[in-house]
Amino acid sequence: MDKWASRLVAQAAGLEVAPGWLVREPADLAGEGGPAASEGGPWFVKPRRGGSSVATSRAETSDQLAEAVDQVLATGDDALVETAIEGTEVTVGVLEGPDGTPRALPLVEIVPSAGRFFDFEEKYSSEGATELCPPRSLSGDRCAAIAKLGLRGFEAHGCEGYARVDLIVPAQGPPVFLEVNTLPGFTPRSLLPQAAAAEGLSFADLVRLVLERAIAR
User: 19-83 adopts what CATH topology?
Assistant: First the structure.
């Protein structure tokens, strides 16, 4: 998974992305056009590759930004820095049917604990984020429009079988693409199974459908 390349794919497909920078070494931070020379944070800093928000952090100041970048670079990966976009975080689960046609599942709204973002602990702790399916903060029409963006992201990335497309929905303006999760969690508590359950698809049937599509390919 290359999050920087994924941003470029999303942009080419007409999806909105946050202002972002690829940082390969600390000097890139203060370089011309770098994040430290931008209008300011906050920012999110994450590894270019990887998942589960490991080594991902939110930086409010330039000093925190430098520390967060150093943390990512220490893992041996490049750092992706993106301007933080405030809004409602949602994920669009996409699932191929028996005939291979992808469809968007009901959206899931993600509500982290106060003062937190959807980091590793919020994802996996029993006391972590609240997940609402369908969303409570968005109208049905808004959810339908976002679902179409999720499908567009799925198809633009050449996904097959199933995936999740994560977005932030600001109060004003278009939804902002975060990333495509090509290997989403698959426990009964995970987001894709929750979305499938909201559509009446049991966990066992979901697993069966995914396996059948894989065998068919």
Answer: Dna Ligase; domain 1 (3.30.1490)
